[in-house]
């Protein structure tokens, strides 16, 4: 939850370092993190291993905090399940006293995602306004942009220049957050924004909470800078091969 702001354990630091090594060749344009300590430390560890972004500023945002669990915070998961059972409900839909509802968490996720989309559009407009300015990735080595498990990123960034049908928005954003929050965010992508999922993804995988430092990769296209209808493709969900 939010109320218990503990640092990473020794295992947590090892996991964060492993994630950093895994993503060390990915050149990010922006890094955002929850302002809770465990997320801050994870983001710092990831950047510390990166070949290109060691000195990049991490921007902390309270909208990325874990779901607030009220009276259940700091207690074992078994206690939360017992509270839900006593209330005649099931986790994760149960909201403990003083906690956030799933709808409230999703609203935070929606607000932050729309902020990211606006950021990408403004970035593109700024670059577009420079006379003779090359694209942000122009002349860059391919290894800076290719993720460890796929070449989808470079494929997705192929410009349809001349067709007039879309605008390539070149932002590559790392977001560090928390399990229950991210599950709600992904639910928003799927149910509200019709995110395209990997063919082999099962329903149980879709509804599960990511392992610590699990990596999910989404490609977002905003055709004609349309913030209302982003086209979202999930390349992978809760990837944990680095662990």
Automatic annotation (TrEMBL):
Q: Does the keyword NAD apply?
A: no
> Which species does the entry assign this protein to?
Zosterops hypoxanthus
UniProt entry keywords in alphabetical sequence: Hydrolase
Which CDD domains does the record match to this protein? HP_PGM_like
Q: Where, in this chain's numbering, is substrate bound?
A: 38, 66-69
Q: Which GO terms describe its cellular component?
A: cytosol
Q: Give the protein's recorded name.
A: TIGAR bisphosphatase
Gene Ontology BP annotations: negative regulation of glycolytic process; regulation of pentose-phosphate shunt
Q: Which Gene Ontology MF annotations are present?
A: fructose-2,6-bisphosphate 2-phosphatase activity
Q: Which domain of life is it from?
A: Eukaryota
The reply on keyword Hydrolase is yes
């Amino acid at each position: 939850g939010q109320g218990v702001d503990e640092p990473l354990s020794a295992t947590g630091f090892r996991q964060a370092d492993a994630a950093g090594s895994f993503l060390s060749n990915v050149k990010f344009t922006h890094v955002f993190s929850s302002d809770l300590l465990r997320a801050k430390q994870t983001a710092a560890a990831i950047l510390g291993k990166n070949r290109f972004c060691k000195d990049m500023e991490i921007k902390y945002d309270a909208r990325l905090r874990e779901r607030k669990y009220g009276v259940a915070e700091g207690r074992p998961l078994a206690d939360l399940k017992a509270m839900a059972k006593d209330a005649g409900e099931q986790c994760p839909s149960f909201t403990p006293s003083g906690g956030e509802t799933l709808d409230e968490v999703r609203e935070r996720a929606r607000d932050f995602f729309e902020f990211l989309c606006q950021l990408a559009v403004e970035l593109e407009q700024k670059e577009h306004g420079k006379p003779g300015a090359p694209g942000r990735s122009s002349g860059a080595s391919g290894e800076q942009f290719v993720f460890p498990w796929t070449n989808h990123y470079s494929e997705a960034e192929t410009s349809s220049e001349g067709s007039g049908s879309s605008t390539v928005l070149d932002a590559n954003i790392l977001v560090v957050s928390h399990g229950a929050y991210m599950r709600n965010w992904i639910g928003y992508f799927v149910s509200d924004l019709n995110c395209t999922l990997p063919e082999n993804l099962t329903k149980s995988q879709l509804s599960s909470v990511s392992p610590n430092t699990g990596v999910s990769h989404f490609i977002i296209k905003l055709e004609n800078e349309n913030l209302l209808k982003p086209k979202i493709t999930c390349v992978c969900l809760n990837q944990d091969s680095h662990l």
